[in-house]
Amino acid sequence: TQLLEQSPQFLSIQEGENLTVYCNSSSVFSSLQWYRQEPGEGPVLLVTVVTGGEVKKLKRLTFQFGDARKDSSLHITAAQPGDTGLYLCAGTGAGSYQLTFGKGTKLSVIP
Amino acid sequence: EPEVTQTPSHQVTQMGQEVILRCVPISNHLYFYWYRQILGQKVEFLVSFYNNEISEKSEIFDDQFSVERPDGSNFTLKIRSTKLEDSAMYFCASNPDSSGANVLTFGAGSRLTVL
């Protein structure tokens, strides 16, 4: 069974600060995705990474896939209140369309 | 922007009753999924569906669950005899192809409350 552990579980920071959240596993994933979920809504895809060591940027968000494809990080620069939400990582194993989700990091950015 | 539509948004039912949750995936998508999220827990895979048959299912997806694509647009999840522990948000998702990146679009979810 593939498991994804996300840390921290909760994060509260001031507007303008930088932050990094982590997604770790002992398993290798063929792809890893980051989603953002608002209360009462479905997850919304932010990015997909598929190559070990890959780095993708989405405005102030930087996503990295570990070299061994077992872990990933999401870095937010100069966080804004609009970044508040639940950030989920999810991965697929080889030959599967099944997404395994982490429990998420609940981010609060205080104005 | 195309979206996945789910109905109802919230359903309350008595234990033992049958429930059907409906989804309209994005029109040119070929792969369809159901996930669920029990309150405070992580999103869990239930089933994937392609070419009118189940391609993968999890341990959660037991004989009480079934899926169907009754026409060209709807994708349904049926729970035959609901249990208290079936209370959760149920998310439908779809993606267009079999790319390894498995890029899903999720619906807003159907909240099921079993009393």
Q: What features would you describe in this structure?
A:
The complex is a heterodimer of chains A (111) and B (115). Chain A is an all-beta fold. Chain A has strands spanning 5-7, 10-14, 19-24, 31-37, 44-49, 55-58, 61-65, 71-76, 85-92, 99-101, 105-110. In chain A, the strands form two sheets. In chain A, strands 2, 4, 5, 9, 10 and 11 form a six-stranded mixed β-sheet that branches. A five-stranded antiparallel β-sheet of chain A has the order 1-3-8-7-6, with no helix packed on it. Chain B is mainly beta. Chain B contains no helices and eleven strands. In chain B, strands 2, 4, 5, 6, 9, 10 and 11 form a seven-stranded mixed β-sheet that branches. In chain B, strands 1-3-8-7 form a four-stranded antiparallel β-sheet, with no helix packed on it. The mean pLDDT of chain B is 92. Chain A binds chain B through residues 30-31, 33, 35, 40-45, 48, 50, 88, 90, 92, 96-104, and chain B through 4, 31, 33, 35, 41-45, 48, 55-56, 58, 91, 93, 98, 100-109.
